[in-house]
Design brief:
A: 5 strands, 67% helix, elongated, B: 385 residues
């Protein structure tokens, strides 16, 4: 470590920075790309299922059946496309993907209600998209329940006045913490910092050393008096700067443009980000010592770092719903812990006394990768 | 001409073979994607961690707890000592819901008044929060209805004027078509085929040209008597084959592992897939004409691939997007291919439903082909010979 602050070291960093300047496209893309992703996740994507297209097949054709169907139209969850006159038409509409749900009211529905037998309606759901279908079923049963309660209450009131409180034995009061309006933007934007950092550190860095080797320039560096540690850090530092600039950029755009609150401290957040930066760089460098070509390095980096950090970290899909083996993998990935830190800092405003286990994992992971890489470098060079 | 093609294809296979690790990865890639998207990509909310603070502690509240447990959505609840603990558990992410029951809950409910249940939901995951709220709503409403039925027993309701009133007068009987068990893997498998054709083929094509240029071997190729056409096609054939191999792996693994098999016509599936592959290849060539380094090529193609994945409906339904964005999605070829491949896989529909999507996809393919023809001159630095 003695030559750590040497002139040679700075020369290497300068060389890497020059590489950036010679290829301005990479630099532009690493700045434009995060903003681009931010716009997509912040603005375009929403996981709220609303306005599900619905068709009605009303075989009863009475005031009651119409009022039941209207209940679906009034809710924000469904959008009534129109009525169909038969099963043939119903099937066609679902086959063509125009409607996702069909509400079928059997003949005799209103007669059943008058006889105080349960009226029965059928819900035909396009199950292709199981997520939407599940949510649609849940919404539909909520609407039917509310309607049923209204009908029941009306039937009871018909037989005599009754204290309305007796008709509501239980009331559920709910309070939503951290994201009271349930905006999916608040869910995605903090997590995006982790995804973009992982992309820039692991995937882009992975190519760096492989590129030197592919071009045969790595021998030239090796004959210089630089130590391995200096070489590693010299490769890493320029990318780290770009990555941290990106983090600031996302925080700025996210808070100003999308109104994502930063309830925790900015300084603390940057501290965790540096820890995560080293984890990501560790993965990227490891990949670059394994892969032989840049193509191979990219494929591997995407598979081992990017896919898990997008799909297994809880960024989009809840970890608790995954099968156990995938949950174990998720808990080996630094992205999972950084995501908990990000949401904690942004939305909950919790501090180190709660987040220290996550920070500890990131630190341990970075240290482990660094040692591993230095060892591999010895053999590999 | 065919000989030329064969020469280039063989050369490209040799280049691939030199990097064995990469070949293994290319075969592992679809399997990994299948596992991730087959198992993890579900927005169903299960195993919800819940903390309960029961001030009442009666048989009735225990019954309500049992109803929560029996729903199958919640894990065994943690018992909190006070409200502060509930907030601490929520802050630390240990639970997603805290539920408190007031002191005189049972007395109120059985005395014909309204008992209150207060819940605190972690809203950071907005989608999960909405679903959890729905679960709790349905469970408490059902519980309330059974209590109501108990409370109302007696002369008031069961009088001679009619049959007894049931608390729930409307039954919904759901029937799910195309994917009756509502398994998300059925929905994802056809999408993964599209995603592989989109990303893998585009990336490999772009990288292979940029690599030749980076290493200076493209000039060597240009001075050979190979025609531009043979060069373009010859270099892409190996990737087409790898792409097709990947599709085969997904189809077979999806069948054996997840039991997903396509209902529609296999020939139609292959034919329309190749239409889609044209676009991916075209984009790959265009990217290779723009990027100078392989890193830049990766990032450039991500500008095409990410919106394709995110805005096509592969993961997030298009209906939920804001209207202007919904118009943007019409420009994404993958959107049409998703309709086609899901239609064939899940619904078993044929061209009579899919011809529009197929025609648009063919249009995109043609445009991509023309564009790549033009830009390929730039890649080579000479006209198409």
């Amino acid at each position: 470590m003695k030559g750590f602050l040497s002139y040679r070291f700075y020369a290497l960093v300068r060389k890497e920075l020059q590489q950036f300047r010679r290829d301005p496209m990479t630099l532009v893309l690493t700045i434009v790309f995060p903003v681009f992703l931010l716009l997509i996740y912040g603005y375009a994507i929403s996981t709220d299922v609303r306005h599900i297209p619905l068709i009605v097949f009303d075989q009863d054709r009475t005031a009651e059946s119409r009022s039941f169907a209207r209940g679906f139209g009034h809710s924000d969850y469904f959008r009534i496309l129109g009525e169909v006159q038969g099963y043939e038409e119903l099937r066609h509409s679902l086959d063509a993907g125009q409607a996702k749900v069909a509400l079928v009211i059997a003949p005799g529905y209103s007669r059943d209600l008058q006889l105080r037998r349960p009226g029965s309606v059928q819900l035909v759901v396009d199950g292709s998209d199981s997520n939407t279908a599940n949510i649609a079923l849940s919404y539909a049963s909520q609407i039917a329940r509310e309607y049923a309660i209204r009908v029941t209450v009306a039937a009871i009131e018909e037989r005599g006045a009754i204290d309305p409180e007796r008709l509501r034995p239980i009331e559920l009061r709910s309070r939503i913490l951290y994201n009271p309006e349930l905006r999916s933007t608040l869910f995605f934007v903090p997590g995006l910092i982790g995804v973009i950092m992982m992309f820039l550190t692991a995937v882009v860095t992975a190519g760096v050393i492989v590129r030197e080797r592919e071009r045969g320039t790595i021998e030239q560096i090796l004959v210089t008096p630089l130590s391995r540690m200096e070489l590693l850090l010299g490769k890493i530092i320029p990318f780290s700067w770009v990555t941290l600039v990106d983090v600031m950029l996302i925080i700025g755009v996210g808070t100003l443009l999308f109104g994502v609150p930063l309830k925790g401290s900015l300084l603390g957040l940057m501290g965790y980000a540096v820890l995560f930066l080293f984890s990501g760089l560790g993965i990227g460098l490891f990949v670059s010592t394994v892969a032989r070509t840049q193509q191979g390095a990219f494929t591997m980096a995407v598979l081992v770092s990017l896919l898990p950090s997008i799909y297994l970290s809880g960024f989009i899909f809840p970890i608790a719903s995954m099968p156990a083996p995938l949950q174990w993998i998720a808990h080996l990935s630094p992205a999972t812990y950084f995501l908990q830190i990000l949401r904690g800092e942004f939305l909950k405003g919790i501090g180190f006394q709660i987040l220290w286990p996550q920070a500890l994992f990131l630190a341990a992971f970075s240290a482990f990768m660094m040692i591993l890489n230095v060892m591999r470098f010895k053999k590999y060079l | 001409m065919w000989r030329q093609l064969w020469v280039v294809t063989r050369k490209e296979f040799w280049a691939l073979r030199r990097d064995r690790g990469h070949i293994i990865l290319l075969i592992l890639a679809p399997i990994l994607q299948l596992i991730i998207f087959g198992y993890a990509a579900t927005q169903e909310v299960r195993n919800v961690e819940i903390a309960i603070l029961d001030h009442d502690g009666s048989a009735l509240t225990r019954e309500l707890m049992q109803k929560l447990q029996a729903s199958g959505y919640f894990l065994t609840p943690r018992i909190a000592a006070d409200e502060e603990e509930i907030f601490r558990l929520l802050d630390g992410g240990k639970v997603q819901v805290g539920l408190t029951i007031e002191m005189d809950f049972t007395e109120k409910v059985q005395g014909g008044r309204t008992g209150h249940v207060q819940i605190f939901v972690d809203g950071s995951d907005s989608n999960a929060a909405a679903i959890i709220l729905g679960y709790l709503n349905n469970i408490t409403q059902d519980f309330a209805a059974s209590q109501l039925a108990l409370n109302l027993q007696g002369p008031l309701v069961d009088d001679a004027s009619g049959p007894p009133i049931r608390a729930l007068l409307v039954e919904t009987r759901p029937r799910v078509w195309y994917n009756p068990e509502l398994k998300s893997v059925n929905f994802m498998v056809p999408g993964i085929i599209g995603a592989i054709l989109l990303t893998l083929i585009g990336d490999l094509t772009a990288l292979s040209f940029v690599k030749e240029r980076e290493q200076g071997t493209l000039e060597q190729l240009v001075v050979t008597p190979l025609s531009g056409f043979a060069l373009l096609l010859g270099k892409t054939i190996p990737f087409l084959l790898i792409g097709m191999l990947n599709v085969l792996i997904i189809v077979i693994a999806g069948w054996f592992w997840f039991g997903v098999w396509f209902k529609g016509d296999a020939l139609l599936l292959v034919g329309l897939s190749s239409l889609f592959v044209l676009t991916s290849l075209g984009v790959g060539v265009v990217v290779s004409s723009l990027a100078r380094t392989q890193q830049a090529a990766m990032v450039t193609s991500a500008f095409y691939q990410l919106p394709s994945i995110l805005l096509s409906g592969f993961i997030f339904p298009i209906e939920n997007m804001p209207e202007p964005v919904q118009y943007v999605t019409y420009l994404i070829p993958y959107r049409y291919f998703l309709n086609i491949i899901r239609g064939i896989y899940l619904k078993g529909v044929g061209l009579e439903f899919l011809w529009q999507d197929a025609a648009i996809l063919a249009g995109f393919g043609l445009v991509a082909l023309l564009l790549s023809g033009f830009t390929f001159r730039r890649v080579l630095g000479r006209g198409l010979g």
